[in-house]
Amino acid sequence: MIVSRQDPGGEHSARVHHYHARSLEKSLLYFEVPGNGAAEHSKMMELPDGTTRTDVMVTHAFALARSLGVRRLLVQADEMNDIRLIERVRVSESLIWVMRQSNLPEGADPKTDIVISIPDGGLSRISRVHLALLLAVLNGLLDRAETILCLSGIVGSGHLDTVFLTKPSEDLPWLKAIDPAYKVGRHLGRLLTIAVRLAAEGREGNPIGAIFVQGDPLSLSPYLRQLILNPCAGHPPQALDIHNPEVFETLREFAAMDGAFIVNGNGIVQSAGTYLDAPIRDRSLRPGFGARHVAALAVTIGTGAIALVVSSSSGTVSVFQDGRLILELNK
Questions:
Q1: CB within 10 Å: which end of the chain, N or C, has fewer?
Q2: What is the pLDDT of residues 16-28, one digit of tens each?
């Protein structure tokens, strides 16, 4: 694919700038702006004074969206030095702002724009965008069949360098199996955020390994037993509600114990330090799965539960449903 920009005046006024394109998935195109490698690329990417690479990316991304009939864009706003550029180039497009903060930024349209708050987690750019789209769908803020044009960059780089088209229902195909009214959706979104924080913040700079199982306690009970006295017993539901911001520190401390967290359909942590003892049955295991992954995969078979695993070695967050790996967020 070619994206063009005209240099002002002179013999180079019709020069076209090429962006590398490659197919990553069935319906996903990926573009990278050349860096400061070869001299010819450096010369090709010379910009007018005061114009940044992000300026060019944003300007052409909005033009590309309009030419393709895409009405919604996702922007990794923390990598923009001046988000006022969006105000200058948008016409009627809706925005998904992916940011550390949870409030709409100055200049955003509160009628059409939404913010997806994602903590710093060292996720790859694709994983970060997929997580944002997943959270938007699970919280009823985005139609899973909608095509989105995404602008992202490496966390902490201070600039945007990637543009791609994606559709959640195709890039996250397991979403098709989830009923739009699926009540655990909001809770799953919150558990994903907690898992990413455990992977990112961890303890002493290292990810904290953990398992979260969300489902019906009665369906799960044949496969659960306590390794220790349940530290969650006797506490009021509010103190163990995963949507309560104060619960995170409790979960961080309890994660130091062996065993899993069991979360009911109302988003309440019912137990910690819980041993999972479910048969693997006929499911195949991917090479490299550890004990946590195998236990999490097995307990979701036939129980209707969803399990999340935070790897203590890599910080990768894996999600299992019905004995299948349905989502993996890599650092």
A1: N
A2: 333 333 333 333 4
Return the CATH architecture of domain 185-329.
3-Layer(aba) Sandwich (3.40)
237-to-183, 210, 212, 218, 241 alpha-carbon distances in Å: 18, 21, 17, 18, 6
Of the two residues 121 and 312, the one the predictor is more confident about is 312
Residues 6+ away with beta carbon under 8 Å from 267: 186, 187, 190, 241, 242, 243
The answer to whether residues 208 and 202 touch, using CB atoms and an 8 Å cutoff, is yes
- Euclidean distance between CA atoms 138 and 178, whole angstroms: 9
Token pair in block for residue 231 = 């530290």
Distance separating alpha carbons of residues 324 and 172, to the nearest angstrom: 13
Report yes or no: 194 and 201 within 8 Å, Cβ to Cβ.
no
Question: What distance in Å separates the CA atoms of residue 172 and residue 186, rounded to the nearest whole number?
Answer: 17
Domain ranges of the chain: 20-177, 185-329
Tokens of 293: 């992954």
Residue type, 309: V
Residues for the chain: how many in total? 331
pLDDT digits (tens, 9 = 90+) for 187-229: 888 999 899 999 888 787 789 999 999 999 899 999 999 989 9
Cβ contact 133:142 at 8 Å: yes
Distance (Å, rounded) from C-alpha 253 to C-alpha 170?
Answer: 37
20-177, CATH topology level:
Pyruvate Kinase; Chain: A, domain 1 (3.40.1380)
